[in-house]
């Protein structure tokens, strides 16, 4: 039996996507520090142009901090209807080359081009053709990473940003990975980085020096994942058409609190949930509020309005209103609250023809 061909994976990442769309459509914004965000005490940055990034502004940063970092920044409210339309256009370009497309958000996707539809000679040529089409047809730029697997392709796409691409060939994998900070590995955040630092690990090369048994003993199943990624091993396939079913954000309080004290947390969690939902072209119709009592009882309340929530403000208002559907007494206390969106569908199918039952509870 012949061996399966070496995978050829391309990770395409649009450059400063939301901000670039705004600069493309409004010439007065070009070359200026643009921040895509609603201005306000509770707002967060959705995107920042490269000009704004030179001031230290980044996505998910509080908008008020971004304003302090760059007082002359131009704040533009996000227009997700427009961004979704551009995202669909980029995926139409991808589909000319492969049917194996796994979107990660509106602005990035994995493509398996092991066998491409366009008859191009290499994955590098496919990435170049995609980036050329995005530039010529959409007047935007994208960066790409080309590698034998998804893990490496995603790292490579960030290597020559903006408007560039980078190839990691199979024979180059170990040498490429060895000097990288271990934080480049998915799942290695501040806490895990600290744990690895305590073991004397700061680079992927250092991590490669640890035995599998030692990593599994210390980190369980994730220890095996660390062992594999340190060697550039990632067998996860590109999975096309994986629909988003729900998104949510939740937090646990340091001390149990009454229902009347939940509003600030609900507002913050609604912003996180809305930002996550905007990474998919699908539309959520149902808002969910989750509560956990100090007795560890789970309560959920949900609302499916006649029209899907069209803004973070609408999501927040509905989530706060759902608190009124919680039967409680003055002594009740809560240890956790969560805000979610569910019942996702395609944009064309997201508008109900008749009004459903508005409230449901579990």
Characterize this entry briefly.
The protein is α+β, with helices and mostly antiparallel strands. It is 34% helix and 21% strand. Helix 4 (80-95) packs across helix 5 (123-138) and helix 10 crosses helix 11.
Structure commentary:
- The protein is α+β, with helices and mostly antiparallel strands and 362 residues long.
- Among the domains are: 17-79, MutS, DNA mismatch repair protein, domain I; 174-230, DNA polymerase, domain 1, CATH 1.10.150.20; 246-361, DNA polymerase, Y-family, little finger domain (Dna Ligase, domain 1, 2-Layer Sandwich).
- The protein is 34% helix and 21% strand.
- The chain has 13 helices and 13 strands.
- The protein has helices spanning 17-25, 50-53, 63-69, 80-95, 123-138, 150-157, 173-177, 190-198, 204-208, 212-219, 221-230, 263-277, 312-322; strands at 9-14, 34-36, 47-48, 74-76, 101-105, 108-112, 142-147, 165-167, 246-257, 283-293, 298-303, 334-345, 359-361.
- The strands form three sheets. The chain has a five-stranded mixed β-sheet with strand order 5-6-1-7-8. The chain has a five-stranded antiparallel β-sheet with strand order 9-12-10-11-13, with helices on one face. It has a three-stranded mixed β-sheet with strand order 3-2-4.
- Helix 4 (80-95) packs across helix 5, helix 10 (212-219) crosses helix 11 (221-230) and helix 12 (263-277) crosses helix 13 (312-322).
- The model is unreliable at 349-362 (pLDDT under 50).
